[in-house]
Amino acid sequence: GAVVSQHPSRVICKSGTSVKIECRSLDFQATTMFWYRQFPKQSLMLMATSNEGSKATYEQGVEKDKFLINHASLTLSTLTVTSAHPEDSSFYICSATPDRGYGYTFGSGTRLTVV
Amino acid sequence: DAKTTQPPSMDCAEGRAANLPCNHSTISGNEYVYWYRQIHSQGPQYIIHGLKNNETNEMASLIITEDRKSSTLILPHATLRDTAVYYCIVRASGGYQKVTFGTGTKLQVIP
Questions:
Q1: CA–CA separation, B19 and B73 (whole Å)
Q2: Nearby residues of B25 by Cβ (< 8 Å), 6 or more positions away
Q3: Chain B neighbours among A 72-101 (CB < 8 Å)?
Q4: Cβ–Cβ below 8 Å for B87 and A46
């Protein structure tokens, strides 16, 4: 149980276009999901907390207008990278938990390459 | 969340026990110790967590010192598939607490 599905697993887009990444909790409801970004040979960096039915909370230094988060249902959060540029190329990962405070499950990640 | 310190890298011979240390000297009384690992180009995988007692599951054992200022993750019989970055995280229970990652330990299991 507690599976988080992330789609797509990898995407290549042209500079200036937008890309949407989906994160689904398959067998539980998630009122809160988290989005991370990971550059090569670096640790995961928390970008934002996605809250069902309300605005996302962004970490300091993360542009909310560039990384749009929508958490419209209890099983789906989306991250849209708007007007993507090569420096946005990264590994994006989401996570959620079915229980309060235990055992976060992570998606398999999305490799974004902006050319 | 309390800060954690881990060695950047470790090697372990295949079949031997891998002991990964973590220091968390500023841990609070209500904070748990969690361990995750990340195999290359995958999302992190939950391994084990504990508060103050030692814990064991099918993947690993977690030894927490009596003062709770440090812990050790033990993989009893390391295999090549255990090669990964291992993250030690300290966070309070209750609510949807966000998880922040340190730099972790890159464990290389050697044939």
A1: 6
A2: B69, B70
A3: 91, 93, 95, 97, 100-101
A4: no
Amino acid at B6: Q
**C-beta of residue A7 within 8 angstroms of C-beta of residue A69:** no
Return the pLDDT at B1: 58
Q: A100 falls in which pLDDT band (50, 70, 90)? A: low
Backbone torsions φ then ψ of B81, nearest 5 degrees: -70, -10
Structure tokens belonging to residue A41: 């040979």
Taking an 8 Å cut-off on Cβ atoms, the answer to whether B41 and A109 are in contact is yes
Q: What DSSP string describes A57-70? A: EEPTT--TTTEEEE
pLDDT of residue A103: 74
* From A93, A101, A105, residue closest to B93, measured CB to CB: A101
Residue A46 contacts B, CB cutoff 8 Å? yes
Contact A100 B96 (CB under 8 A): yes
Distance, in Å, from the CA atom of B20 to the CA atom of B99, rounded to the nearest integer, reads 20
Helix, strand, coil share of chain B (percent; to 5):
5, 50, 50
